[in-house]
């Protein structure tokens, strides 16, 4: 092990240009992450032809640096404009934007950046120390476990919403329902497409999120009489103070752990990790009703989880040759072109490559702190412009961003429709968080439930009696009851005290 | 007024192209050629287009770029392809997925002018190292005695993998149950023993086969793979299962025949180049990837349509 790190360090110092590559890749990643429509996947895919001129180690350093940078980058536009720059950052908008609206954009960005770096470093350490055992552990997760994990996340809907239990549930069910449009994941038949082939893609997650978050926000602001009422004033990014940091330490630790584990599971990645740790942050909070109004934990949880998932998703890639996420799948393609055969033997036969990437990712996370502050400052300058100019620009960015993602004009239509829908949800005071959790986790729950039932030949007992599944499902049930009880209690107290009604 | 002028110019150019196709062919291609496909950036098809694009650019002086339009069973990509102008600068990278969409009545293969089939992969049934099945005979015997008991992980629902395994069920009577996954989940669920086996091509499974974590039982091809001399083909066992994933270029149906000819010439030169052959070997696609030109490829497509329609019908997917 020490020998391996020694040869990795020898490589890095023997090729000083590799440090330049890491710096470049982090900046490139932050840029791709922060612009809606350009995601980390695109950032990595575009660089693959450029890795041909390097040796495979330098090539993989470049790609993993982009991955690290882009995962944080998405949070910048999520916080400042309510427009997630990448899907991983969608969850960050839930509390990041409200905090920015309260005039604390700098604080929100600072929390996002610090949490990203901590999560990223945590994920990298897990990758360095535990890659082979973690990869083996992840193999215990079959469809039944994925289902239970998604259900656990979905049950947080019961705790979210502050006001009305019913509205939270309705919003959650709407999310679950809308996610069923498109092709059936098991039989491939058309569902709710009404014979319209352009709906076969379904309601894609990114257009739906950009519509409900960004476009709906612009619509709402346009409807307000004085658009100067909420000016985001404080845009200077500062890292949280030690006191603020210590207040979120449990959230950071819990979310980073969730991120590393979920990242290591193939097929689910940073986006799912962000939403599940947000759900958990709500569940473990003493004041769950404050989530969605701009609380620090609401930013720290998803940002530490999605960055930790970066290290996590490298685990199955390097230990087994199975990509843990869409971005690592692209990286795997890049490795193959270099003549490297990804598989369990990679860590033995290409020790130097693997350990150099470990160190490179560590450095990339630290560089992210430095460049993240700069990037956030430049982006924040936009906020000095009047909203009458920024608003329409956001709409244009939403349209081009959604189209650029997949060159599919139907996605733009979906985005517009979801914008109107999100606007209605807000006006009627339905919690957006519940809706989005349903939309993100619903498809995972459905697909894995049905895969699991095919495997167990529709034996439900066989399905739930697996140890990990059983534990997760019991936890879901308890949290459901506890969540409803908490809401009911708050509701009753709220009705009892005259202060709450006034 | 301006548009009228453009129309006139276009008409003149069109007239010229009839009068002097040879002269115009020299100017073609004069700009970037875009290749639409329905898979993710960095996926097998995306890499295929990029691999051909490198020597193509050297030979023709023009670049070739893949455009990825994912999801929806390939429908959005097809719609985009059809909406574009037929000027010789839009191609589509097609595969058995288009044949399936045709059989399902979602698209028509008549919309394509076949250009070149380049890659032809071969699938395998692969089991994890701790599987009780050492040989395909044991696997078949168990499946015949317990129809549907064995689960096989596949990628995508009612797609290529489902058709191959459906044909396997029909041909062998050793009925297995398919479980659709994303490609990485399919591998992890097979390694973790959640399913009994998976259907995968040699290239992506190579790492796990080399390390001994997985064992191929049968290969769907006419001949054994030189790298896996001990793994029998389905054909030698008496089952006609040779369907493989292929990757090819197609143009719009009403493409200019001169363009088809020029482009095929350039692509065949690019495919023969060392740069492309090297990439093909790294992806372990060299075993039966024989280049087919427009006519042979059309005949191949017609055969494929017949086979896929028959299998999908037997699976009850056509209605």
Automatic annotation (TrEMBL), chain A:
One Pfam family, please name it: TctA
Is Cell membrane found in the keyword set?
Answer: no
Q: Which residues form the DUF112 domain?
A: 20-437
Write the record's keywords in alphabetical order, separated by commas.
Membrane, Transmembrane, Transmembrane helix
The UniProt transmembrane annotation reads 20-48, 60-81, 108-130, 137-159, 165-183, 195-216, 258-278, 317-341, 353-373, 385-403, 409-425, 432-448, 468-485
User: By what name is this protein known?
Assistant: C4-dicarboxylate ABC transporter permease
Q: Which organism is it from?
A: Rhodophyticola porphyridii
TrEMBL record, chain B:
The secretion signal range is 1-25
Q: Does the keyword Signal apply?
A: yes
Keyword line: Signal
Record bears the keyword Aminoacyl-tRNA synthetase = no
Family membership: Belongs to the UPF0065 (bug) family.
Query: What is the recorded name of this protein?
Result: Tripartite tricarboxylate transporter substrate binding protein
């Amino acid at each position: 092990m020490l020998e391996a790190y020694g040869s990795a360090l020898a490589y890095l110092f023997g090729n000083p240009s590799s440090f330049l590559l890491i710096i470049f890749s982090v900046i490139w990643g932050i840029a791709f992450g922060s612009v809606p429509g350009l995601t980390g996947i695109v950032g990595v895919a575009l660089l693959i032809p450029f890795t041909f001129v390097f040796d495979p180690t330098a090539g993989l350093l470049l790609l993993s640096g982009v991955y690290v940078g882009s995962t944080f980058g998405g949070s910048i536009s999520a916080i400042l404009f309510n427009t997630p720059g990448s899907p991983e950052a969608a969850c960050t908008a839930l509390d990041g934007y409200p905090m920015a609206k309260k005039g604390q954009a700098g604080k929100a960005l600072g929390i996002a950046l610090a949490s990203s770096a901590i999560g990223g470093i945590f994920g990298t350490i897990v990758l360095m120390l535990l890659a082979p055992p973690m990869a083996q552990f992840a193999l215990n997760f079959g469809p039944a476990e994925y289902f239970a994990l998604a259900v656990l996340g979905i049950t947080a809907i019961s705790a979210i919403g502050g006001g009305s239990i019913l509205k939270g549930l309705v919003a959650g069910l709407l999310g679950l329902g809308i996610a069923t449009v498109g092709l059936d994941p098991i039989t491939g038949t058309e569902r709710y497409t009404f014979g319209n082939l352009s709906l076969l893609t379904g309601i894609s997650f990114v257009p739906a999120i950009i519509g409900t978050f960004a476009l709906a926000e612009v619509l709402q602001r346009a409807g307000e009489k004085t658009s100067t009422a909420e000016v985001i004033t404080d845009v200077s990014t500062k890292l949280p103070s030690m006191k603020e940091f210590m207040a979120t330490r449990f959230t950071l630790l819990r979310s980073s752990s969730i991120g590393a584990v979920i990242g290591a599971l193939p097929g689910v990645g940073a986006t799912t990790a962000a939403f599940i740790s947000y759900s958990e942050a709500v569940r473990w909070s003493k004041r769950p009703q404050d989530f969605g109004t701009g609380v620090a934990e609401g930013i720290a949880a998803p940002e530490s989880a999605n960055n930790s998932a970066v290290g996590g998703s490298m685990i199955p890639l390097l230990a087994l040759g199975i990509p843990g996420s869409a971005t690592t799948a692209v990286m795997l393609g890049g490795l193959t072109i270099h003549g490297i055969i990804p598989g369990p033997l990679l860590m033995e036969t290409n020790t130097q490559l693997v350990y150099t990437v470990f160190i490179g990712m560590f450095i990339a996370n630290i560089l992210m702190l430095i460049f993240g502050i700069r990037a956030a400052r430049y982006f924040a300058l936009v906020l000095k412009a009047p909203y009458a100019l920024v608003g329409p620009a956001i709409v244009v960015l939403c349209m081009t961003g959604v189209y650029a993602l997949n060159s599919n004009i139907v996605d733009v239509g979906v985005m517009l429709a979801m914008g109107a829908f999100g606007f209605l949800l807000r006006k009627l005071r339905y919690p957006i968080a519940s809706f989005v959790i349903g939309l993100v986790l619903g498809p995972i729950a459905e697909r894995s439930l049905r895969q699991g039932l095919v495997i167990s030949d529709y034996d439900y007992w066989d399905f739930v009696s697996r140890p990990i599944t059983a534990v997760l499902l019991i936890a879901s049930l308890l949290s459901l009851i506890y969540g409803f009880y908490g809401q009911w209690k708050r509701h009753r107290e709220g009705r009892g005290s005259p202060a709450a009604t006034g | 007024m301006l548009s009228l002028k453009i129309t006139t110019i276009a008409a003149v150019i069109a007239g010229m192209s009839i009068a002097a196709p040879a002269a115009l062919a020299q100017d073609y291609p004069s700009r970037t050629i875009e290749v639409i496909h329905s898979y993710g950036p960095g996926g097998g098809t995306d890499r295929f287009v990029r691999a051909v694009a490198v020597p193509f650019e050297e030979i023709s002086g023009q670049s070739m770029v893949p455009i990825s339009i994912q999801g929806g069973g390939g429908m959005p990509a097809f719609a985009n392809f059809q909406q574009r102008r037929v000027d010789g600068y839009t191609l589509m990278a097609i595969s058995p997925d288009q044949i399936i969409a045709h059989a399902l009545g979602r698209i028509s293969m008549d919309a394509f002018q076949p250009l070149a089939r380049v890659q032809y992969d071969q699938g395998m049934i692969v089991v994890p190292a701790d599987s009780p099945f050492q040989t395909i005979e044991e696997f078949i015997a168990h499946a015949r005695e317990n129809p549907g008991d064995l689960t096989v992980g596949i990628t995508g629902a009612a797609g290529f993998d489902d058709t191959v395994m459906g044909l396997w069920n029909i041909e062998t009577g050793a009925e297995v149950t398919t479980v659709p996954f994303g490609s990485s989940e399919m591998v992890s669920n097979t390694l973790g023993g959640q399913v009994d086996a998976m259907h995968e091509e040699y290239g992506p499974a190579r790492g796990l086969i080399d390390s001994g974590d997985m064992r191929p039982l049968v290969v769907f091809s006419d001949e054994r793979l030189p790298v896996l001399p001990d793994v029998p083909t389905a054909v030698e066992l008496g089952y006609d299962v040779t369907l493989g994933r292929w990757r090819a270029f197609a143009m719009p149906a009403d493409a200019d025949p001169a363009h088809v000819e020029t482009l095929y010439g350039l692509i065949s030169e690019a495919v023969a180049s060392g740069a492309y052959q090297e990439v093909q070997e790294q992806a372990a696609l060299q075993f039966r990837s024989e280049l087919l030109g427009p006519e042979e490829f059309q005949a191949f497509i017609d055969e494929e349509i017949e086979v896929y329609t028959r299998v999908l019908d037997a699976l009850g997917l056509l209605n």
